[in-house]
Amino acid sequence: MEDQPGETLNIYRMPIASPVFLSAYSSYSAKHPEDTVQIFTHTPIGVSKALRSGVADAGLISDDPDTWIELDYCTKVIESDPFCAVVAKGHPLSRKKEITMRDLIGHRILNAGQSLSSFSRGTKKAHEELLAKLRMFKCEPINFSNEETRIFQLRAGLGVDLLSKSAAREMYPDMPHIELIDFESDLDVFLVWNKDTENPALESFAELIPEVE
User: Fold this and answer.
1) Distance of alpha carbon 100 from alpha carbon 89, whole angstroms
2) Measured between alpha carbons, how far is residue 7 from residues 12, 89, 203 in Å?
3) Is the pTM of this model over 0.85?
4) Mean pLDDT, range 1-7, rounded to an integer
């Protein structure tokens, strides 16, 4: 990397997909071909450690930005990140564009609770609220000892996964994503960085991301 001209921008991200971020990445690469923007995928804790150590110039997160603002980070919201239902093609719900929580009655819910860190406070709160709503309709989520089994159950058409839209794009880009019209959360996709970050490429990159009203 020392032999390459231009700046290097290191961005650590959660395993999420954001069309707005991808567009900014593409635009930056076209405008600054001499620079290198490197992307690394990690957990929220991993993103935080990379930011604190200076390994990462910025992070891409899905959660409540206030959690990071309270820790004295700078943030810029890219887009809202609502929850959705994901099912396999051929599942009884697969032809629907939107559903209510009541529509989940009688279906196997494969993922409604997660072990989340303090850096996922907003996501944890959303999952707790989602679980409470499911129980109102007598829908009890099914727990698995490992994530791979849950994913295979979903792809085999044996249930419904409930997760944020950005995570659904990343994990299940080939499967139907159904809007949950009566469940709202305060999750956002946002860029986060240290206030004392001096990499000039970060400012140029952030400017390509439109403000969210």
Assistant:
1) 19
2) 16, 44, 12
3) yes
4) 66
